[in-house]
UniProtKB/TrEMBL annotation:
Protein name according to UniProt: LacI family DNA-binding transcriptional regulator
InterPro entries, A to Z: HTH_LacI (IPR000843), Lambda_DNA-bd_dom_sf (IPR010982)
Segments forming domain HTH lacI-type: 3-22
Keywords linked to the UniProt accession: DNA-binding
Sequence intervals crossing the membrane: none
Source organism of the structure: Cohnella faecalis
SUPFAM superfamilies on file: lambda repressor-like DNA-binding domains (SSF47413)
Pfam families: LacI
GO molecular function, one term: DNA binding
Keyword Lyase: no
Signal peptide: none
Amino acid sequence: MVTIYDTAAKASVSAMTVSRVIIYTGSWEAL
């Protein structure tokens, strides 16, 4: 169970990082 939660936590952090990169890229393209 611990490993499952750990993997899920890492996956959500990775997803947040990816969406931030997409948002930053979008704002650079808007400029």
